Amino acid sequence: MKKKCLSILVSIVLCFSLIGCKSNNQKVYTNPGASSVNEQASNSSDNKTDDAVISEEKDISEEKINTEENNSTNDGSDEKTSNDSVEKEEKPIKNKADEPSKNTTEESKAQLSTTTLETKERDWFFIPTKDGTPSTVDPNILNLITKQDGYYLGNTNEKVLYLTFDEGYENGYTGKILDILKANNVPAAFFVVTPYIKTSSDLVKRMVNEGHLVCNHSTNHPSMASTALKGKDKFNYELENTAKIFKDLTGKDMPKFFRPPMGKYSELSLSYTKELGYKTIFWSFAYHDWDINKQPSHEYAKKMIMDRTHNGSIMLLHAVSKTNTEILDDVIKELKAKGYRFASLDELK
User: Fold this and answer.
1) 44 to 47, 56, 147, 190, 252: CA distances (angstroms)
2) What's the DSSP call for residue 76?
3) Catalytic status, residue 298
4) Which among 47, 55, 158, 189 is most buried, taking Cβ atoms within 10 Å?
5) Burial 145-179 (b: 16+ CB within 10 A, else e)
6) Is 94 exposed, middle or buried, given 0-12, 13-18 or 19+ CB atoms closer than 10 A?
7) Does residue 95 surpass a pLDDT of 70?
8) Which of 178, 264, 217, 214 is nearest to 65 (CA)?
9) How far apart are CA 217 and CA 337, in angstroms?
10) pLDDT digits over 237-294, tens only?
11) Distances in Å between the alpha carbon of 70 and those of 170, 175, 246, 328?
12) Which residue among 212, 221, 288, 318 is the active-site one?
């Protein structure tokens, strides 16, 4: 009897021992170390997920507005220059602060429903030449923009050029560009967005102090054709807010020149722009200079500029371009040597 009880007792002890071992083994596999897998990932800069990296890249690109026009970088693609190739880097800035509320746009939407103006979104493009004659656009488009105080050319009867720079974000070259312009006594127009005014205030004030025009490129860098469809209040905000921020900084009214972000426009958006007292400034020269990771060579850029320069050209360059900055002094001197002068947009009539 004693042997039987002892045997039962031993069996019970062994059973509990096995259960305890199984429980301990489970803990080993579910808790590998002092911290969890998630904790280790969150504490290590080397364990970022693909989604996190994509999110960071998106934030960077939106902040920089990677800023517009369609142009080809190949010598054989002169047939058409359009918005998609010259500023595909520009994107709308997602900034909802101080935008008009839904209630404030109801009246504007009611007005929109009765408009007879075309609301179709268009992309600016032109046909460049290499023989010194002005770039051309479709006659119907020329008629449309002219009626709404839009320009892509200045005085074509004179060897005059209008130098303009788009400033979506600062890439470290604007100071040098201003040095070159000052040394050569050349005026320019800088089209800026609201975030640029806020983050590069010293450069903006320097532009003004050195006699350049600091012009309107919108607040959030949207398609103005799309913005016009949201009502006049939202449209007006894009220009008026930028002008306000500029005046708060400089004490001066912003010059009444506007460049539509990405070259996107409609008859309605041009009309709204005109109602605010602005001239819309397109361009007759631009090239693929905006991609900071694919900068053209000095030789290519100079040839592109020299081959396509013409009387009355409104020239669009991007101030983020390393190449533009490095060739600018030579380009200005060569164009002056050919008899061209540089004029302010104020001369446009």
Assistant:
1) 6, 16, 60, 43, 49
2) T
3) no
4) 189
5) beebbbbbbbeeeebbbbbbbbbbbbeebbeebbe
6) exposed
7) no
8) 217
9) 32
10) 999 999 999 999 999 999 999 999 999 999 999 999 999 999 999 999 999 999 999 9
11) 22, 27, 28, 22
12) 318
The DSSP H or E segment spanning 17 is: helix 2-30
DSSP state, 189?
E
Instruction: Name the DSSP letter for residue 262.
Output: G
pLDDT digits (tens, 9 = 90+) for 315-325: 999 999 999 99
Residue 315 in contact with residue 249, Cβ under 8 Å? no
The residue whose two tokens read 């350049």 is 212
Q: Inform me whether the pLDDT recorded for 77 exceeds 90.
A: no
Question: How far does Cα 315 stand from its chain's mean position?
Answer: 17
Split at pLDDT 50, 70, 90, the class of 152 is: very high
Q: Is 166 marked active-site?
A: yes
Q: Tell me, yes or no, if the pTM score tops 0.70.
A: yes
| CA-wise closest residue to 254 among 278, 225, 223, 280 | 278
116, two tokens: 């007879």
